[in-house]
Amino acid sequence: SELIRGFLLSGMPCPSSCPPGLLALMAPGLALIVTFSLPSQAGDRRALPVEKPSGVKGRTLILLDVNTKSPVRIISENFLSLQLDPSIIHDGWLDFLSSRRLVTLARGLAPAFLRFAGKRTDFLQFHNVKNPAKSRGGPGPDYYLKNYEDDIVRSDIALDKQKGCKIAQHPDIMLELQREKAAQMHLVLLKEQFSNTYSNLTLTARSLDKLYNFADCSGLHLIFALNALRRNPNNSWNSSNALSLLKYSASKKYNISWELGNEPNNYRTLIGRSVNGSQLGKDYTQLRSLLQLIRTYSRAHLYGPNIGRPRKNVIAFLEGFMKVAGGTVDAVTWQHYYIDGRVAKVTDFLKTRLLDTLSDQIRKIQKVVNTYTPGKKIWLEGVGMTSAGGMNNLSDSYAAGFLWLNTLGLLASQGIDVVVRHSFLDHGHNHLVDQNFNPLPDYWLSLLYKRLIGPKVLAIHVAGLQRKPRPGRVIRDKLRIYAHCTSYHNHNYVRGSITLYIINLHRSRKKIKLAGTLRDKIVHQYLLQPYGKDGLHSKSVQLNGQPLAMVDDGTLPELKPRPLRAGRTLVIPPLTMSFYVVKNVNALACRYR
């Protein structure tokens, strides 16, 4: 057994002179190594349990090594990106995007894309007028407090006088009035959502200025989804309103990428009239021609078609689109929500079957894309932990992080180039920042990911010495491990360092021994746990035992690691998420960009 363990730790293959008996003994361990080395097939097979030698008692020990020679995938620097829903025009939050606190939070997640899209994309009309008091979307002064509206106007005038990045410091009373207004509008928005009937929404030039200012100040690249439901009698796309928006944006020299529509496979349920994939492909071709006529956007990026979950009819829609416009778009996009937010329970976020549902979708999308445009980049846009706006104390709690972090790991390991999180700030409960502008657990998880994880994805090799598990309780399912080169932007670590991130869904702690190239290296631990008495329902988190909170409106806290001595076994507490930077590995895959 010591010889077997020696081979596993070294990563060396068994020599040809191995006796048959030794090969037979090693077979279960090798099966586990293969299982963990191929994360893209995680949902397809069951790992073989490894019997613990009779002389070893007690806890489970996982042996972990990483292939440091070359990456298995390279994803975008903007891999983790953000979304804002057009509902922020309706409920008034768009007027507060100039808040110093919001900009500070968004800057923490840069570089990233900021996608402005959602259910109300296809009910959005652009009007090139500047008077914010008369033309802003949503309720007017008579609906609410006149002096609240006047405060908004005065804030706009003050912003206009600023040069460069326009930042505001809104008085507390102004924010309190906005929260009251948003709470009333929340009921209206929910009613529209559940009835699937949406009212038209007006985006003024002033509103577009505020949106672009927020993206630009935060270091985010804006992606704007145009209304695809403006149709001519022959069902072709009516581009007149979009052209007005494009011309205004070009006059301001706004650097924007573009999309057309949101979940076009669902248009029949919205307006009683469908648009098939080939027709949408023609519409995208028309949009590309429009962009080429405007000098500012002649080389702008175009993404689509942003379909929903790839069921049979949706796959047929995508095939029709790809035949016509596969070469027109710069990346193919779709969206995914894991759970119906109206019936979610905290235990849902711990189900391994739920974590694996995304794998099948990825394969379906990749099959179609590679049939028509091999090598075309694929994005997952509009991903959320729950649908229907989410559920308070669930989709905005620590528990939702298990799904979010696993989504990031799974998508990166399977070569999805970008994932867009719905939403940065929203009227529901899927957001990263709440309406007090306080970061929620998934924000801190995303911030750690941005600070520590680079675009190069590495293969992992794992062997487990464990007691025979009960049927269906394979250790692989509940212990998720991913590895990347450490972010080049993090100057605390030299190039060649490696970051592991680990999800432990077990209700017991797990021990991991670093082997091979990782053996006897100093490790920095970033352990994220819920803070306070609410446990998995908590909306606050602690890092290595210290609660995380903003220092002030312009300053994020320092994310301090806990150094572990070289060679120390990693102890992963139950129901936690953690990052481990293995220092000075000098990994060949990670030395150069």
Explain what you see.
There is one protein chain. The N terminus is likely disordered. With 593 residues, the chain is an alpha/beta fold. It is globular, with a radius of gyration of 25 Å. It has a single domain, classed as Glycosidases (TIM Barrel). 33% of the residues lie in helices and 21% in strands. Helix 4 crosses helix 8.
Q: What structural keywords apply?
A:
single chain; 593 residues; alpha/beta; TIM Barrel; eight-stranded parallel beta barrel; 24 strands; disordered N terminus; Glyco_hydro_79; hydrolase activity, acting on glycosyl bonds
- The CATH superfamily name is Glycosidases
- Broad structural category: alpha/beta
Number of domains: 1
| Helical content band | 25-40%
Number of strand elements: 24
Residue share in β-strands: 15-25%
Extract low-pLDDT stretches: 1-58, 132-145, 465-474
CATH topology-level name: TIM Barrel
CATH architecture: Alpha-Beta Barrel
Counting DSSP H or I runs of 4 or more residues, the number of helices is 17
Largest sheet at a glance?
9 strands, antiparallel
CATH class: Alpha Beta
Q: Distance between the terminal alpha carbons, to the nearest Å?
A: 41 Å
**Whole-number radius of gyration?**
25 Å
Family: Belongs to the glycosyl hydrolase 79 family.
GO molecular function, one term: hydrolase activity, acting on glycosyl bonds
Organism: Catharus fuscescens
Protein name: HPSE2 protein
